[in-house]
Specification:
Layout lengths: L1 H12 L6 H50 L10 H8 L3 H77 L2 H4 L2 H13 L2
Amino acid sequence: MRSVLFLLLFSLAGCVTIPKQTADLTVLLGNQIAESKLTHINLIEEWGKERRERAEQFLEYRWIPTFIMNFMDENGAPYKNLKEVIKNDCRRDRADEIQAIVDAISKQVEKKRAELIGAIEKQVSGLKEAVILHYAETERMHRAITANVQSVAKGQDFEKHIREALMRPLKEIAPIQKASEQLDKLLGGE
């Protein structure tokens, strides 16, 4: 009686099954995590590209005119020494002076460009790092879920084998009849 009760309790306790859809959903979830991560990284790249374009426009329309104004007096005229060089008939001196101004403006523009683009790249890098960390945690959780689903599936396989083993008749597990016959032969002298 006790063994029948044990068998009944054991068979009721093992009724939990994982549907095939659960395994399919873990695969789908893994794909969605990978796609979301890629999408977020691409969005950050696009954001960075748009910010770099805006920085270039800002340089062109705001900073280059400002840097040019640095070489003019309060009235918007070139500095006195530039005026004198321009009035001078010596073209080489004028060209050298203009080249010096262009070089100075170019250095200021490149310095400002490096400052702006550097700030943008730092932001892009920080945002990407945040996304990567977020998805590393998400992927870790997904691996844990997948491992648990696989573990339950393996457990169900083991449970199935145990149930099959419990269902085998005693005469297959321990052939008492055959043992009795052998002992009877020994006792009977046959």
